[in-house]
Design brief:
heterodimer; A: alpha+beta; 7 strands; 19% helix; B: alpha+beta; 38% strand
C-alpha cells in the first residue's frame, strides 16, 4: 500500500466534519475495496488509548458505528439512517500509532433496513468484528 | 454543565479516552453504583443527536466500572458487546445506568444495562468480560 507523508493511504479523504466525529477524529474514507467493500481509517493517537496501552474499546466501537452509518447511507442512497443494533467482538488489541482500517459489507438491504457486516484491521491483525442493523430514516 | 448532578460525585478515570470524553459521575456503593453522564456539544452529531459511538463508549466505561467493583479491581477485558438503540438523545440530557451482573463464572462476567433519560430507556447494552489470567 502506498502511504502519504501523514501515514494515511493514497486516496484517504477526511469524513469527520463536525461534532463527535471530529472530536474523536480525524476519521477518513478510503477508496472502495474488492467487491464494493467500503473502507475507512483512522490513526490511533494518545487520546484514543486506555491505561494499559491498547486502543479503548469505546473508540473501536465508535469508529465501527461511523463506518457502518456511512456505509448504510452509501448503499441505501438515503440521506439519513439510524443505528438500530450493533454487536461487536473484541478480537485483539489496537496499539498506539496503528493505522486502523474498517471494511464494511452489506449482505442485504430492504426498503427500510440495511444489514451490515464489518471488521477492523491493523495490518494483518484483526481487532474487531461486528454485525449491525440500520434503519433508513423517513421510511416505514 | 460538567459539574456533578445532585447526589452524584465525579468518578475517577484512568483511561485517556475516557478522560477525553468524560466526565463520568456516580452515586451509591461499589458493586451497586449508578452512573451518569451529561450529553454536551462534543458528544452529538451534526444534527444535534447523541452519537451512537458515545453511547457505546459510556456503556463500556460503566459496565467496566461495575466489573472493576465486583472483582475487587481485577484486570479484565471486554470480549463482546451487544447494543440496541431505542430512542435518540440530545445535548443537555442526563443519561443514567445502573449496571447489572447477570451471571459470573470463574473466568467470565455477563453484564447488562438499561440506559435511561428520566424513566425512559433509550439504549440497552450487554457485554461479556474476561478476567485476565483465569482459565
Amino acid at each position: 500500500m502506498v502511504s502519504r507523508p501523514d501515514g494515511l493511504p493514497e486516496g484517504a479523504e477526511e469524513v469527520s466534519i463536525g461534532g463527535f466525529n471530529r472530536y474523536v477524529g480525524p476519521l477518513y474514507r478510503l477508496p472502495d475495496g474488492e467487491g464494493g467493500v467500503k473502507r475507512f481509517a483512522f490513526l490511533a493517537a494518545d487520546k484514543h488509548m486506555n491505561s494499559v496501552g491498547s486502543v479503548h474499546g469505546g473508540m473501536l466501537m465508535a469508529f465501527m458505528d461511523v463506518a457502518m452509518s456511512r456505509t448504510s447511507r452509501l448503499v441505501s442512497g438515503a440521506p439519513r439512517c439510524s443505528t438500530v443494533s450493533l454487536s461487536c467482538d473484541f478480537v485483539g488489541p489496537g496499539r498506539l500509532g496503528d493505522l486502523i482500517e474498517a471494511r464494511i459489507k452489506s449482505p442485504r438491504r430492504t426498503r427500510t433496513m440495511v444489514f451490515l457486516m464489518g471488521e477492523l484491521v491493523a495490518g494483518d491483525r484483526t481487532l474487531l468484528t461486528a454485525n449491525g442493523l440500520w434503519k433508513v430514516a423517513g421510511v416505514s | 454543565m460538567n459539574s456533578p448532578p445532585p447526589g452524584f460525585a465525579e468518578t475517577r478515570l484512568a483511561d485517556p479516552f475516557e478522560i477525553y470524553v468524560g466526565p463520568l459521575f456516580h452515586q451509591g456503593e461499589p458493586g451497586a453504583r449508578r452512573f451518569a453522564f451529561r450529553v454536551d456539544e462534543r458528544h452529538v452529531n451534526m444534527r444535534g443527536i447523541l452519537h451512537g459511538g458515545m453511547l457505546m463508549t459510556f456503556a463500556d466505561m460503566t459496565l467496566g466500572q461495575a466489573v472493576w467493583d465486583l472483582t475487587e479491581n481485577a484486570a479484565s477485558v471486554t470480549l463482546n458487546m451487544q447494543t440496541q438503540f431505542l430512542k435518540p438523545a440530545k445535548a443537555g440530557d442526563l443519561v443514567e445506568v445502573t449496571p447489572e451482573l447477570v451471571r459470573r463464572t470463574r473466568a467470565l462476567l455477563f453484564m447488562r444495562g438499561d440506559f435511561k433519560i428520566g424513566e425512559e430507556i433509550i439504549f440497552t447494552a450487554a457485554s461479556v468480560w474476561k478476567l485476565l489470567g483465569v482459565d
